[in-house]
Amino acid sequence: MKSIFFKIAAVGLIWLFLHSPAPEFNGQAFYYSKQKMELGDWGARMSEAQKKQVAARLKNRLEKNYILNFNKEESLFKEKEKIDAISGATDSWGANFTRGEQYKNVKENLLVQSQEFYGKKFLVKDKLQKIDWQMGSETKQIGQYMCFKASASIPTQELTWYDFDWDDLNTDDDDNTDAAVAMTQVEAWYTLDIPVGHGPGEFYGLPGLILEVSAGNTIMLCSKIVLNPKEEITIEAPDSGKEITKNDYMSTVRRKMLEMRNNRGRRRG
User: Fold this and answer.
1) What is the C-alpha separation between 42 and 145, in angstroms, rounded?
2) What phi and psi, each to the nearest 5 degrees, are found at residue 14?
């Protein structure tokens, strides 16, 4: 009789264990990014001293620091604001084309990102860009974590949609529908020790937290991880601004910059 009772009790405990909600899991990852300075034809005519001066002036845009708050399904990625080392002020021009606070939900396939463009607030809502990761067998140690390599080819526009390049105004969207899509080769290193599908910026979808990623001329590296921090972390999607898709946001910025260029040309004339 006792053996039957113990069996029933054991089965009951196993059922409770399997059907109890998993303990909440969250963390913070701190990243820094470095971008190579590309001066194009100008660089060939500049001295090394001039190049160093330009690099110092552009330091805020070439080197950035970020925080990624995450749990099993959601993440919130944001830049830590930095004061310009030369002028003592924030970079107002660059601020118009930097990544805003970015929320991702990998379960709901949702991106919500706040963007401010010349004083107007936008709330960009869209699906996450699908990434076809190719899993590699290479490994390397990053801090205390063993990491595995993965690579992918991603449309460049999907990685820079919040940014702006004057060259964008030299192309006509209607005339380039059949043009080849520019792609960026991406190399990422993730750790299975933190089994969440998150990463910095637009990168996600691997079986572990992404600790390092190289894309084009930019590298982003995790410098510190805090799991289940004592202080509660907040992971909420931004909710302020005019709701818009990524494509519509890019079109809005392009129209405004084209208008500014044309107005400047008329004043000169």
Assistant:
1) 42
2) -65, -40
DSSP-derived secondary structure for 91-116: -HHHHTTS---EEEETTTTEEEEEEE
Pairing of strands 134-142, 120-127: unpaired
Asked whether 198 and 67 are in contact (CB, 8 A), the reply is: no
In 3D, which of 109, 108, 99 has the Cα closest to residue 249?
A: 99
Q: Which amino acid is at 235?
A: I
Q: What is the mean pLDDT of each run of 10 residues along the chain (269 residues)?
A: 44 39 78 74 57 51 89 96 50 64 97 93 96 97 97 95 75 58 96 97 98 96 95 93 95 88 67
Please give the model's pTM, rounded to 2 decimal places.
Answer: 0.77
Q: Which of these, 188, 196, 104, 182, lies nearest to 138 by C-alpha position? A: 188
Q: Are 66 and 32 in contact (CB under 8 A)?
A: yes
Residues 210-232 as b/e (b if ≥16 CB within 10 A, e otherwise) read bbbbbbeebebbbeebeeeeeee
Nearest to 212 by CA among 135, 147, 159, 131: 147
